């Protein structure tokens, strides 16, 4: 799976806080290199394609080794002490919680089913975790279907809902729950009338690769295999199967209907992870595969009736080279999002009675200078999310209108279409979010948006006036890099402002407008936020993405260096007040920006980041990311991996800035050893005397499922650490 989960943009707020649980005490992990034991070097040397690659801390990859655990625990105790001594740290956490509470309830993943049955995830004001809710009609009373906090109270371990998919008739909901941020979800089927689960949970159903058949009596799901003793973690996502289960049957009665070891005549690779798409009113089912990271893959079609036959007759529609990134089924038609011949994307429609891709016709094109990122079908039109920088606007495409009509929005921000999987409605629910505007869920009828009453919209809390400025920064080769700046009105450009540069730049994902209580707490203190859509993002479509991909990945951090120099030259910051941050795959952005130009920064945050790109593919999720970053076993791709690997580009006797590495011990996307190895290497290499902290969490993973409390704590730690290192906060005596 990709390092960034598609339904949610993993931002600063969505990465878990670090907490090491010992007895009843919460202990966080890391600190100054001088305050902890230096990790011993046990060098391993590989020769890869004629290049000698040294790895002094490979033993950290065995994270279960008691000596490794002991070192991590020591790092954690020391780190917590350092962070707790920052005088404004607790004040920041309280302020973040206060602003968050003032924004009201948080509602996500609204799904509108036939019969006006509505489902959504809701975290109430002051609540820790999202609950699965339902109501009949937009104005109907709501009730709780699934509350993961009950299981958390019973076990003492945080639980989270990973996904949910209602049946078409509303009688059942399939949902996944995992513990401790692991994302190791089990599948449950809930009877919505009794509120009780049907049958036993089904393990290893990690993602929302589910499909209810039109009669709502059975569903398909993708299940990972159980690893045998001694099998490497890299086998985790190989040879998964799509299973077909009738409601009420046991998991052992489920029938395998699709997958590399099931439909062996289709030429699937072991990493082709499948799902089956159904829709009420359609006789067809469409099987789709990806490697869980890049959205391109295979598409096949068959008649649903074939499920009752000994074998299903699948007909191939497309493969990876056809560049199809999304699909939606409606009647006899299959709608396809593709960047083939359209780097800013377009939507095609194919009649499945004649499933030859050459017969597909264009039904929606991206407007000039914008990117058609996503689409959804309504009863009588196609709706699209169109990117314009960090903003996303809606566009409606009626039958026969390939150019579409722009939809006016109540304010400038990022619009996100909510789910109408049956394409049952002409009006559209969507959420609008802005840098300085609270998220609102709106109902679009025609060209008019109104409040359907799904969420209470509290008044904006008392916050400073914030300027939002879009700039373009010339990079080393003349490419103009878009960057969005946020700061208090009246800010003086005298270089004294604490400034944080943030980048991601992988999978074509882009920095997008969103309201963040933690960001507001930073801006209140005179901070500047700079969100850079460097190459590797999709802000300008596929060409911009491919310009920061594998062999061209150096553009990602070279653009980052250019953005840092711009912030300094324009007087927003100096090297004493400039920080940089990257999350997940953004670890490449931040890590290589820092190791390329350490003199530009006072501090950096490496947030659950990819640090050792050379060794990543030997992990469970690393193998799924070969398509994005490359393989060390491929001579054409190894040089690019070595270049983007922060761990391998750390140099001895270098004055690195203060760095805090953040990670969850249960992280299934980026293994915690990435941060552990890099922290050890930095602590040994730096001669700046500035702290290298490793903040770990035994109850968290990659950020999915973290509680609100954890998130507030993490945000406070990050911002107080930055302010401390920028000379804007002091430490109290221990």
Describe the structure.
- There is one protein chain.
- Strand 5 (106-113) and strand 6 form a beta hairpin.
- Helix 2 crosses helix 11 and helix 6 crosses helix 7 (586-596).
- It is globular and about 70 Å long.
- The protein has 11 helices and 39 strands.
- With 734 residues, it is an alpha+beta fold.
- Helix content is 17%, strand content 30%.
Summary keywords:
734 residues; alpha+beta; eight-stranded mixed β-sheet; four-stranded antiparallel β-sheet; 30% strand; disordered N terminus; oligopeptidase activity; protease
CATH architecture name of one domain: 3-Layer(aba) Sandwich
What's the average pLDDT? 93
Helix content: 10-25%
Q: Count the strands?
A: 39
Poorly predicted parts: 3-34
State which percent range the strand residues make up: 25-35%
Total DSSP helices: 11
Give the CATH superfamily of one domain: Alpha/Beta hydrolase fold, catalytic domain
Under CATH at level 1, the class of one domain stands as: Alpha Beta
Q: What would you call the structural class?
A: alpha+beta
Summed up, what is this model?
With 734 residues, the protein is of the alpha+beta class. It is globular, with a radius of gyration of 25 Å.
